[in-house]
Amino acid sequence: MGKLKNLGSKLLAGPYVIWMLLFTVIPLGLIIYNGFTNSDGRFTFKYVAAIADPVNAKPLLLSFEMSLIVTVVCLLLAFPLAVILSKYSTDKNSFIVMIFILPMWMNFMLRTLAWRLILLNNGFLNQFLTMLGLSKVYLMNTKAAIIFGTAYDYFPFMVLPIYNAVVKIDKDINAAKDLGATNSVVLRKIILPLSVPGIVSGITMVLVPSMSEFVIADMLGGGKIYLIGNAIEQAFNSGYADVHAGSGLSMSLMVLILISIVIYRIFDNGKESESIW
User: Fold this and answer.
1) Tens of pLDDT along 198-230?
2) Main-chain dihedrals φ then ψ at residue 259, nearest 5 degrees
3) Alpha-carbon distance 157 to 202, whole Å?
4) Three-state DSSP class for 179?
5) What is the CA radius of gyration of the chain?
6) Digit-coded pLDDT (tens) for 120-136
């Protein structure tokens, strides 16, 4: 019976293994192979090192700068919200959290198009400002538009891990208040230290994917803001497509992702169990 049960478990895992091989392992292997070889199939670091070229380094730095701003904006909005949500009852929490998750059920392109309708020169935002007798703001095709759209799309990925971390420390907060700790002391000595794993997880989930964004940059930036994601996309899809160049740039971003994962593992390795006093 035990052998049959193990065989059944392996068979059930079969479709997942096939899916991973077809859509994760093989594509990743092709990216690595093309990134380290030239058109003749010879090994080279040329395409991976191309990230240091000025033509690629500039959009990379701009992507990092904008993704950092997006991450900070999401963090500043998500942390207080997570603390507030943790004070409500479970039923209210579930409803409010669902409101933030609900937009994720909508297609990514539709969410970005909605921001486009809001930020257009004659969009909803400027129409509302005109009704109030205020001057119009022209955000479309600017860095600000890309930051707003990206922050909106990735905000749930920041608030959920922080909320999951904060909601687990409710007993510690109540115990500290019973012992006379002020709200500022509770925030500095308990909430912030014990929220570090959730904060680091949220930062990783927002910073890394936002660095490689190019769809939002195209739709809200009008093609005027050139990011590293645009460089990779053009390397694969332009009239002068070079799969080796695109793969090399993709490999460079993979290194950043691996570094972020390592940092997350360091912070999330039982740190919350250490003394915070």
Assistant:
1) 888 888 889 888 888 888 988 898 888 889 888
2) -60, -45
3) 6
4) coil
5) 23
6) 888 888 998 999 888 88
